[in-house]
Amino acid sequence: MSNESEKFRTYAHQFVDWMADYMNDVEQYPVKSQVAPREIYHQIETGIPNEGERIEDIFEDFKKIIIPGITHWQSPNFFAYFQANTSTPSVLAEMLMATLGVQGMKWATSPASTELEERMMEWLRDAMALPKDWTGVIQDTASTATLASILTAREQKSDYEVNTKGFAGFTNFRVYCSEETHSSIEKGVKIAGIGKGNLVKIPTDDTQAMDANLLLECIENDITNGYHPLCVVAAIGTTGTMAMDPLKEIAEITKKHNIWLHVDAAYAGSALLLPEYQDLINGIEHADSFVFNPHKWLFTNFDCTAYFVKDKDALVNTFAILPEYLKTKTDGMVANHCDWGIPLGRRFRSLKLWFVLRHYGLKGLQEKLRFHIELAKWLEDEIVKSGEFELAVPRSMNLVCFYYKPSNDISIEQQNQLNEKLLNRLNSSGKIYLTHTKVNNVFILRMSIGRTNVELAHIRKAWDLIQEIAMKI
After folding, report:
1. Three-state SS for 146?
2. Cis omega before residue 409 (within 30°)?
């Protein structure tokens, strides 16, 4: 065995010991990094060292310089943004992925990467009650998957002429989403050349979901005025409050007007593993594409996005390019996933998904998801009983949106200032981390409950802290 391999073995054991300790002790760290801007930057040398350095010294600097600048997403006291979960089987698989260094761009470059990915997408598709004739592929993020969907819609609508000749003759495309839909839709529309001005944001109803009647009205007005409706993005779980767009009603509209329908379930999609939530995708058979992130609420570390399409040929025809240096004797016989999205290079992401799905099993995944939802229900009940806090919108799965309102006599502006101050105090404590959004100009706190190892004790402690600091301000 080479000396280099022996060194690796020694360091790897040290690193894994540290990793295991970190998993055990993560809640001892301040959840949100407490460093000041540029504090990390100024501790790092201004250039590449001339001579190589020992791994021991680099690792010590990792602990001394880098760790204080980490916001600990895996802490059970992290309730901000959305889940970005990892788990022991996922981390172990990621280690294997890094060791193998697979480039899974084509079947021939690693057949296991391609074929495991195909099977994992089938596992998820069937467990989530997606149409059995749909095909899945792993993308890096939902933003990339949504861009792929918009580009595929553009090419299908133009009979692939935009890819060949540009936009001449295919102007005035329109894309539709709700006012609450993720910012990646706007970014995708810009990158795809549709233009930000051609993204129509549909107002929402009282539940913050897209108003399907207003969508129909906008589409029909656009057609009258010479626009070409291209794509509608429906959200199963909006970013701010996890509102659910009425997919069935939206699908009827897109079917009637022959418009591509993309379903964005980036965060909430994991809950479709629970039969009691599968009615959220009634009408999915009329959609064209669907995306969700196992790297959010399915215990698979970033990055791993599951993207499903009704017409895989439309996807491949949009992206396939075959220069001489990429030709192989199996072309046409197998899936070459470099033709199924934007990047050529592809990581072996299906390996960690395989580890996670096998380790927990469908029953274990369902138990964890239901437990997180029950924890959110507990918090919801406490807020309702409190008298000084109110729900901003009804709880949606494991997301609770609320605000502090100690008196009915304060104005909205005063209330907003009070809640912003509360949020900042909570986050600067290092004990928990929350984020906010606004609903009808009301500043609200979001508490997303779904860390891999979160327990009721963490929610109780967080709720006690929220009340304690609220009373002090």
Report:
1. helix
2. no
Q: How is residue 467 written in tokens?
A: 């009340």
Instruction: Kindly report the CATH number assigned to the domain that includes residue 324.
Output: 3.40.640.10
Helix (H) or strand (E) holding 14: helix 3-25
- Rounded Cα gap, residues 253 and 261, in angstroms: 10
Count of helix runs (H) and strand runs (E) in the chain: 14, 11
pLDDT at 440 exceeding the cut of 90: no
DSSP reduced 3-state for 107: helix
Is the per-residue pLDDT at 342 higher than 50?
yes
Asked if residue 365 is part of any domain, the answer here is no
C-alpha triplet 142, 342, 278: angle, nearest 5°: 30
Residue 416 corresponds to which amino acid? N
Give a yes or no: residue 91 inside a domain. Answer: no
Taking each helix axis from N to C terminus, what angle separates 350-386 and 111-127, rounded to the nearest 10 degrees? 30
Residue 208's nearest CA partner among 446, 466, 422, 382 is: 446
Q: Where are the alpha helices (DSSP H) in 166-246?
A: 183-191, 212-224
> CA 235, CA 145: separation in Å to the nearest integer?
14
Q: What angle do CA 260, 146, 223 make, to 5 degrees?
A: 35
pLDDT given for residue 336 in this prediction: 87
pLDDT at residue 3, as a whole number = 81
Distance CA 433, CA 49 (A): 37
pLDDT in tens, 232-286: 999 999 988 999 999 999 999 999 999 999 999 999 999 999 999 999 999 999 9
Residues near 375 by beta carbon (within 8 Å), at least 6 away in sequence: 398, 449, 454, 456, 459
Domain enclosing residue 265, as ranges? 102-347
User: With contact defined as beta carbons under 8 Å apart, do 364 and 132 qualify?
Assistant: no
- DSSP-assigned letter for residue 64: I
Q: How many domains does the chain have?
A: 1
- What is the crossing angle of helices 456-472 and 350-386, to 10°? 50
Residue with the two structure tokens 């069937």: 126
Beta bridge partners of 78: 433
* Residue 269: closest CA among 445, 137, 129, 401: 129
Cβ atoms of residues 197 and 227 within 8 Å: no
Token pair 């418009």 is found at: 259
pLDDT at 77: 95
Give the pLDDT score at 324: 47
Assess if residue 26 is contained within a domain. Answer: no
Amino acid at 359: H
Entry pTM:
0.93
Q: How far apart are CA 392 and CA 158, in angstroms?
A: 43
**Angstrom distance (rounded) from CA 12 to CA 200:** 52
Question: How far apart (Å, rounded) are the C-alpha atoms in residues 171 and 158?
Answer: 10
Q: What angle do CA 67, 73, 78 make, to 5 degrees?
A: 120
Whether 362 is in a domain gets the answer no
Q: Is 254 helix (H, G, I), strand (E, B) or coil?
A: helix
